[in-house]
Amino acid sequence: MSLVYIGCGSDFEPVIRLPEVKKFYYIDSQPRSEYGWLEYGTRMFTRKNYKCEFRKGLPKEFLKINIDDTYPEIYHDVLNDRTIFHYYDLPFPWTSKIYLYHVSKKDMELLKFQISQATHLAICGHDPHAEILEMLPPKFTLVTNDNTVYPTNEKEVEQGNDGYPTVSAEFFLHPVIQRRITEVKYLTKGTTKTFKNYTEFMLNKGK
């Protein structure tokens, strides 16, 4: 099993709570920018300490196994054979400006392939661009938490800066996409609740 987490920050709850998942693709635009490729003309949205915070927050069993300058960073738990691939500085999936970053075309195509094989998508707080849904397999498990906003009507649907909807907006607007979710893992108050589909999750997550 593998999990994709765009806008991961230094949130390792999915790693801790889902021991059955063996590979984690952690992706964030930090430290270059907190908001994808947008910087609003200033450096105020950079997070210079991000990589240090990420390493500090790692579960202790994960050790870095590649050379410092090798991208992405790879952390491995030998005892349980689990791996975290950390793609930092990457405004994904908004890759139209990829020439600004240090990710090669080959590495980007490999990442897209890995996402196409993923079994889990994490949406915890940050809501990625809806383009990610085109890369995921037809069926997947949604991993989420109680810090995430779930729109209940069209007025609450968040639109991206380029006019495209977010993943959560697509879930709300399109039942066909909702049916792609075969299971929901809800990380809340120190526990993990499991729901058999998105509809059941939305009806019962507050109970």
Q: Count every beta strand, where a strand is a DSSP E run of 2 or more residues.
A: 9
Helix proportion of residues, in percent?
10-25%
- In percent, how much strand structure appears in the residues? 15-25%
Alpha-beta classification? alpha/beta
For the terminal residues, how far apart are their CA atoms? 29 Å
Shape: globular
Give the radius of gyration: 17 Å
Q: Can you tell me the residue ranges where pLDDT is under 50 for at least 5 consecutive residues?
A: none
- Estimate nothing, just give the exact number of structural domains: 1
Q: Numbering strands along the chain, what is their spatial order in the largest sheet? A: 3-4-5-2-1-6-7-8-9
Largest sheet geometry: 9 strands, mixed
Instruction: Tell me, rounded to a whole number, the average pLDDT.
Output: 86
In a nutshell, what does this entry contain?
By secondary structure, the chain is of the alpha/beta class. The chain has helices at residues 13-17, 50-57, 105-116, 132-135, 167-173, 175-178, 198-204, and strands spanning 2-6, 23-27, 63-64, 73-77, 82-87, 120-123, 140-145, 181-188, 191-195.
What would your notes on this structure say?
By secondary structure, the protein is of the alpha/beta class. It has one domain (2-204). The protein has seven helices and nine strands. It has a nine-stranded mixed beta sheet. Strand 8 (181-188) and strand 9 (191-195) form a beta hairpin. The chain is globular. The two termini are 29 Å apart. The mean pLDDT is 86.
